[in-house]
Amino acid sequence: MSNAFVFPGGKVDPSDGGAEVAAVRELFEEAGVLLCDRALAAPKQAEWRRRLLAGEVDFPRLLAEEGLAPDRSRLHGWSRWITPSFEPKRFDAEFFLAELPGEQVPSFDRKETVEEVWVTPEEALARQIAGSLPLPPPQVRTFHELAAAGTLDEAVRVAAERRKQPVAICPRPRPGGPGLTMLLPWDPEYASAEGEGEPVAPGHILAVPPSRLSWTGTAWDVA
Q1: Per-residue pLDDT tens over the stretch 7-22
Q2: Which domain holds residue 144?
């Protein structure tokens, strides 16, 4: 996803033991936000991050030396996306919702990420269409969902409902027609399109528009 704006994240390391701890670690590495059971003083947190990014220490050592534990209760599972089967490089990614701790300020790591923005879902979508904020399909769909939720409290409530109906979202390309249109599992044409993934029946919590995203040549737009 080079040259695009994405949410902080990365791969699950063996020492993480799972996606939630990986999310906590990657958020700290890439955005400087630490979701643990207690806060660190800002200078100490910044120094640990510097050493972590330099490869001088690993995340388990940080946790052990400071007596910290990842605070999983701060993470709210939102969605799971799998790269379409026609792509040569594929990912199975879990997305989480979290509230930014009031005492922490995000900052990009200048290593894997070279720029950052902090925007509302509505502003993100407007800038995406204008071409000033390039977003991949999972981010476009997620911002539509967060905009519909309206508030953080409502988004957390929706997240709890979504976890009761887990689905792996694996887009399929729409056959025929000009350009590239990706169908999501609840689109009426999804079942007849080629590719991996399972259709989602009407009535599922995810089965609301948009159900497809089209590449305009400069941006992904809902269709």
Answers
A1: 999 999 999 999 999 9
A2: 117-222
